[in-house]
Amino acid sequence: DAFDSMIYDPLAQNGDVSELLNYVDEIAVQSRYIGVQPTDKVIGLSTCAEAETNGRVVIFGRLDRMS
């Protein structure tokens, strides 16, 4: 849902993504364990379809520093 504040309000997390990670794990249709920690930087990318309010796909991933 585009109005899901847990997904679409990044400022609510205050730097700790534990609650978001748990929530995403509960509602995910597909997931893969990659060892994300609460202190990691997480990015979410969302599609937008005009036809459906709840027709979105959101992909989350961990940002890793490249050396």
Automatic annotation (TrEMBL):
Q: What is this protein called?
A: SrtB family sortase
Q: Which domain of life is it from?
A: Bacteria
Name the source organism: Candidatus Gemmiger avicola
